[in-house]
Queue: 2 jobs
Job 1
Amino acid sequence: MVKDTLKEWPHMDESYTAIALWNCSSIINIFPDKVEFSKLKTLFLEGERKRNRDDFLVVLGTFFEEMKALQVLLLKRVSFSLKGFPSLPNLKTLRCYDCMLKNFSSSLTNMRSLEILALIATEIDEISEELVKLSALKYLRLSGVGVEREMNIPPNLVSRLTSLQELHVIPKNNLNLLELKSLSRLTALSLRLSANQIPLEDFMFPKLQRYDIVGEYYSSDQEAFRRLAIQDFSSSLSAFNNLFCNVEALSLRNVGGQKNIVPSMDEMGVNELTSLQLKSCNDMEFLIDTKKDQGSTVAFSNLVELIIESMASLKGLCYGVSPTRFLQNLKEVIIKDCEELQVIFQIDKLSEKMKCQTPLLSNLTILRLHSLPKLKRIWEVKPSHRAIASLQSLKVVSIESCDNLKTIFSPCLALSMLHLQQLYISYCDRLEQVIGFGQEDEIIENDCLLYCWPKLRVLRIKDCESLKYISTNTLIQSLESVFIVKCHQLIQIYNMEQNIVLPERGSQEYLTNLTSLELRSLPKLKYMWNGPLVHLQYLVIWNCNSLEHLSNIKDQSSLFLPKLKDVRISGCENLKYLCSSQGLPCLEAIDIKDCPRLIQIFNMEKNKDGFGLQNDSSLCCWPKLRILRIEFCRNLKYVCANTWTQGLQSLESVYIRHCSQLIQVFNMEQNKHGQDIVLPELGSQNHCWTKLKTLRIEDCQLLKYLFANTLSQGFPLLESIYLKNCPQLLQVFSSTEERDVIDDHILLNVPFLKNLEVSNCPQISCFILQAQLIEDLVLSNVGNSRQLCNTDVPVLNEGCIVVGNQEEVFQVQGGYSFSTIKLLELRNLFEVRVIWNDFAQIVTLENLTTLTLSGCNKLRYIFSPMMARSLSHLVDLFIEWCEEIERLILAKDQVSSSSSNGDTSLQPMSFPNLKRIIVINCKNLNSLFPFGFVPVLLKLETLIVTRNSKLEQVFELEEKVEVVAEEEMKFDKLEWLSLEKLPGLIHFCPKGYHFVFPAMIELEVRDCPKLATGFFIDSQEFVHCKTKATQLVEQVAVEEPTTVRNAIFNENIDWSRGGGESQLPHIT
């Protein structure tokens, strides 16, 4: 019976011989005390996965009383108490995985027939002498809960388990290895050892069929068949002599005293060895020394994996003539940090016997070399030995930090590499060629074309200062990805002067499978390839200052890139253009920066009449182009000289910055009759940019036009417009449709527009936007030439934004209130008189957080009372050089009586989130904020008021009130207060109020001669201020309290908390 996710105990049936219950549900958290299965021989119990062992499935020892026939018991994730455990005379196998066993040692007497005991990741109380009573025990595995926890084995215990055939002790332990001598039947052994456990004399491991003997810092491998991992050992390795003859995996770490492996460790050649790992064995010079044997020995014939690291004295793999079948099956080689190694494979030192065998290295698939500073050659092979060596299976090569290496492959070896797929080279300062001719006799006859590496897909080369060519006269067709970075001497990727025809292959097209090409910091590279790249998708070129063209072919129009998707080019000082604009149907992204000689990104050849092509339908268009980004190309005039705007129906983002010669982004092509060319199949989309979301143009001094012939509904998804520092920009949008032009103003409906910034574009023509979701609006120095501005903006039926130097910015109609706006910045709009033309007083600004006004000379006020009461999220208020402004908030008596919301009985105003206020050079301003009976600026942190000559009071009482008892008001967050050059300022604190500033850090008061508000500090250094009371009440002068008389009035104050001696009086 087999059950999964058991929720209740099954019915008892004496006929069961085997039961397996997997993943027992937590519902059965305690099993029955006793069950009757008299014929049961095999029982598997598995509990649910639990983080805490205390929550494991609980089974009592009495549970097994009626299972006398039980032979095999397997428990997993079980908390098992052996107390009361019955005698099970037939139990042969007990395996516990991830369990908790209580009273383990005391119950062993009830399992005398046990032959297999495996406690894996299982917690027990102790290992005691009781284990000796298991006289039939053949297999013992102890792995404990954690490998770092040392297992204590009583002395002389193991030596008395004379029936043991397999012993596996996985954690650290204190086993005395001399006890193994008593185990005459032992065939398999797993041990984790420290160096001090191995007796110095008179000990040798017995011959074993299977073993996994590792140092204390190695992990145990249950799959290992015959493995030795020795570490931190400086004496003789004679204790392992019986194991070297059949070891399959050998790892030596920090083992001294051995100059080689063969013959020092094994004279027979370790021919069953498949994996060899060496690290920090600083006395070892070679793997094998054959000087005395003259090549007759068979050695390392089955080695598959060779990993060598940090071997200070290693000079080579073989000293002398290579033995028979040496490294014949080698598949993977990794060598790192061997400072003396000069040559790895000395193929020219081969015996005559070797020449008749399977080619050397023919099974090698992976080669990785790292930090070998003296390495001069990887392979030392003569042309006469070409047949002896072959790299026919090599797939991956990685070479890094081999500073003396000049070439990697000789031509004869390169020709054999039919399966090479990936080649990585980095930080090889003296490398000149990947495939080179290191010796005169290596030159191939007639210097003919090498057709090699037919499966190479990935080539990555980085920081090779001397590299001039990847190869000479080499044809590599299969490349898919090329990445070359910081090779400052690289002239060409391939040094091939002309197309070479192979009779058996015909004329070859190079790099026809290339999909990704990335070239960075190659200052001498002049061009990259000959011919088309029909599969290229990604092209990245950075800092290639000598590059003028992508190809050296004379007819650049044939440079066909039909699958190119992404182009990124930066820092190419001499690049004039990329390629023909034709044949780019898949182009999705263009990103070009710092190319000062670039005139056109894509070149368009014209016929003798000056037209792009004779056939209009062949003009360039990029139907999939989504992103266009160009920066710092000071000679760029066009993106493309002839562009179909209707061929850009996928365009989502345009970003152009610092292109001082740019005349027009897209130069619309016309036919011979002067008419714009239209694609009939696109219909009404010819004048629409249906997917454009972001438009950003900055610092383009000659740019005059952006979009021509655009419909009012032509930007249905546009979200952001940024136009900055374009002094010649005349027109952003133009239309030939009469319905899109109102009194010479272009009207655009942009329903998703959220961000609009137009700055320093003084020649721009006014246009009107219907943007109901606007969040950020910045207008600065826009249309300041009066002759270009129509000051009479028409009244529309819907709310709109007027972009230009007009009298109004927002026109509110149709019930729309612009409540989504978060940031508003208006600078140098000298004609603006009203920000919101709010006829119905419906504008609410509950989302406005930042307001900046500068140089709006004709503006008299900012908010109506209705607007001001909605400013619940305003954080920053910055106003400067607004000469005519008198009030920030229109007075109640100035609100139109026709307004439905002009009721003067509204609640007092409050600005609960306003943190920073800066008001500078507003010479007609007489007050800042109305002041009622509730705190108006609870979160104010900074208040700077400077050079406002007519300002009389910062806070103005909303209603005149009689003199009553003094009212205290705290500004708990205000840290910085600055009042400077305010000749008319009388009141900072309204009369009858007492302000307290507990958080004040900086207080500056300068040139305020009329100021009647005095400042002082208390014992806690809280700053206070009050205003003198001079009026009479019932003909009796009001007596000034002492605190007011002693405060500082109309004097300069420069106070900071903790700034030494205070300028402010202490008043308690």
Job 2
Amino acid sequence: MENKPITLPNNRKSATTDDSKSEMQMVLAKMMEEKYTYTYKKLVVPMSMRSIYWKFFGFPATDDGDILTKVKIVCILCKTQIAYNRNTSNLRMHLQNKHAQELLELEATNPPRRQVLSQETKERRAQKKLLKTGLTSTQHIYTTNADGTVQIDGDIQFVTDPNVSLSNIEDDITIGQPLRVMIKSGSNIGSNSQNVAFLMPEDNSINQSSIDGKTVSDAIAEFIIMDLQLPEVVEGRGFQRLVATLRSPCEIPSKNKLEEEIIPKIYDTFRESVATTLSCITSEVGLTIEEWKSNSDERFVTVSVYYQNSGEPVLECKVLSTIHAPLDWEESQWGNTIDSLLLDWDLKIERITAVVVATSRTELLNALTNRGLTLVPCLLYTLQVCAQACFESPEVATILSKCRAAIGAIISHPAASAALAMQEQLLELEENAMLMDYPPVWTSTYNMLEQMVLRRNIVTSILESMEGVDQEIVDLTNDQWKIVEDLVNVLEPFKVTIMTLSEEKMPLISLLKPLLWQLVSSHLKIKENDSEKAKSFKESLSDMLYDRYADYNVTLLLQIATTLDPRFKQLPYATEEDKNSVATDIKEMLTKLIQEESGDSISIKVEEEPLNKKSRVSGMEFLLGGLCSIKSGMPAEEKADLELVQYHSESTAPLDYCPLQWWAKISAKCPNLGKLACKYNCVPACCAPPSRIPAEVQVLYDTRRTALPPHLIDKLLFLHSNHTTKQLHTRQIIDIFPILEINIDDVDVPLKNPTVSYLDIFFLISSILMHILDVAIDINLAIRYLLAEKVIYFTWTTVFIFLPSFINVIISRRMQQQDDKTNETSDSTDLKCIHAILSKKLYCIILIAFQLTPVLRYYRTLKYALNAYKFNKQNNRNAQRRYYLKMLKEDQDVALLRVSECFLEAAPQQILQLTILLKHDHNDINFEFVHQIASITSSLGSMGWAMANYHRSIRLAQQDKLNISIIGIVLQFIWHFCITVSRILSLSILASIWPIYTIIGCIFHWISMTLWIIIDSHGILEFCKDSNHAPHCSPKIKERIYSILFSMVVGVIHVFIYLNTIDGSTLLKHVFFYIICFLENIIATVIWIYVSSNEVKNSWYFNILIIFCVIPFLLGIIAMIIYYGVFHPSLKHQNCIDK
């Protein structure tokens, strides 16, 4: 093996190497997001794209008309983003599905031209076109002014596309010599994401000798898995030279090492991960079974499972296994294989809603049916079988043979190929679109025939002018051309169906009934002007579609699924009799589900028991008993009727709306019907995911899959489907560029090691106890004022306890409403309990009286922490991560509530108690004095910790934020504690002298801060926003009122401390706020010095308070500067990169 090391130039200084490394790190830090977002100002169409359908589409571009990306195109009419596949088929399909009237008018005013041009005319047009190109500076045929954004998935692929301008990305990467970043419209196996390429500068001086061989092995293994490559690719000299060019010296793993060690190890790891994920699923699942044939003519069956995680409106898919399936297997062998597979993955048959099958093996189908499973034919496989039946008829097979021969003759002849390209340009046809088909994928054959029909005159003319070609092999008669045209017209609805499936996020079985009904009742309906051949095609296709879905159980399943799809409630896909029958079945299932959930049988028994006992009738019962009967719980049947009525009263969802998201949004209104819908929403319409449906992707995937060696098929297909997910993007980048590893704290990636320690649990329990103790001290103090007949002090103390507590209940209620909308989790019992507590008046009074709102949230945080700890002990990583993230989210909420409680209740309470002390107890130290000092000291510490914990929690809960270190938390505590002490003492000494003026000054400060917050109230608007309100619409009046009220609450906090309500730079805000506060403190201190009475001036605490009004404030500012200058997480991260 020739493996010549390639040495990169290394004549630059080490500082330059560090700079290059830093530059690369900065690039990756920006590129490691899951999606790219481009903001465009125009939609443009280049001059070379002259199809009439481009009138309603365009590429995103800048103000100057520079195209940002050709990965996606945007519809001018509805702003829908469509993947650009280098042809106009999906453009026309989109217009046909969404803008039929505009498409009709467009084609009416621009009919397709099929005239035969003379040679003179061709030459004249070619000269005219060249002249136009030379004279005009116009770059685009269409330009539309439109603002918007386009999102593109981020992954890695080395590509080039000179038509794509990404200057805006390079501008964002502020480095001296940026990497060139390009995007290409291409498809990956199993993914439709478009990828980012990193092109190294030629003078890159990174020390390649530091590259770890294990990283290269991992990268090559991922390359083989993600692209379904053969392991023997590493033995190719071209591949070895490529790797040596990129990284030298390095060790390339051998084919045997990949097959026997690396790939099996990755497989075992991911198999365990998938098994853990599936073990946590409690809802119903759907299975798919797809049969396919390898290059060695061996048969295989791939089994996948589809499921929906609780609270997530997304249908997930995992490939379980690929089984070798010899043709001589009997039903018993298939039965044993199925039982073993389900046992291995711990899947219960009763939890499987249906099995989508893409096979005609009778033995396999019988084995599945005998186990009580409902079998739904895969729609893609059904369309393939139907189209293949048409292609295999003798007449069509002969025509296909001639079409392939004609295309082969033209593309292999340079002059003919050039003539074809010129004619396509002159007739404004898509260039290089007439390609030879791949028979196992029927859409490729259809595309070949469609392009042949469009170029009938061109192809005929070119073939006639070619010498040495047997015309009998390539020439099609007029009758044969007519058959091709009929076949293209008849199969066009099938292609539209394929396009519809590929546009879905995940096509569900609820689509099948409407699609089949539309195909059979409309598109395949025989018309008077149809030819005999077209009639024959339509009849055979219609019969095949009907026969494959004729089974009663399949029909019932599809009708139920379609009825529960909010998009198709009003479609006439079935007779009224069938709809009524299905409605009855749905009601029975729903009633049974409600009974199981609520346990009606127990409640009936309890209700009937008192009737057997004779009890004394009270006077009220004797007089009014006949009028006021005891109302028992609503029967399950009535609940079912109410939910069904509610469901049908909801407006029909748009056809492009995801039903899973619709049900997630409406589940609060129809909770039980939503659970029933989930049972049917876990079954896909076809075995292949949407990204594998387009013809070119199908061909690429099938050719690579069929070439896999039998001993690696199961492992590679499993890893390819389950391993190439979004969670690998960051790790993949670091694996490919190990020298660029970014140093961050482990706590910055909570999903990596989401462990809950005894210390975390101790802190949560301590927080609960400290809060209860703080409340108990305040209430005890109020009671002591009352017993001492100090009514005014008792009144003010009580107001400062109950009013902030009432506000906290409102804020907590708002948080709970947001949680109800976004977190439909499995903890339904806990959520219902919390919801009931916050909505019942009696419970709210108790919460307000004893300030228990934060305790309620602390309880949930503690519960999630204990669950995470429990699942960690059980090695259930998936559940552990889930509860750990819930704990972080709840901890963030309780931190905000604690801040609100501290500065709305504790801070005013401290000012009140200090003012009382300063006015009446100049030198007396008694039990009441000690009690008050204890209350003040504990509250001051609580406020400092509340602010530090708040900043820690919001960063810990957000994955895009780096976390605060221990030293940073300590500095945060010192900063906020000192500032709070200074502010409260300054206001207290002023209130002890001029209480009325102090209140006026605080009100003025509060109003100013509130206005400041309202001016920049985006964060508060988001908090107060109605989740049902469209995000792009302006806030409603009600939402604005709520935001103003909440701004007023935050304004009270700003009397004491600064609380940032919107993400962004805070430097100028801090400078402005703390200058004002420092000036206020100085004014209060000066007034205290010059206006205090002689008795106060002679007291022991006079000078101490002067010092504590100023010095702690300066200490707090110093702590803040040290924190932002040295220990702020983003700065720490930047320093790690610079190193």
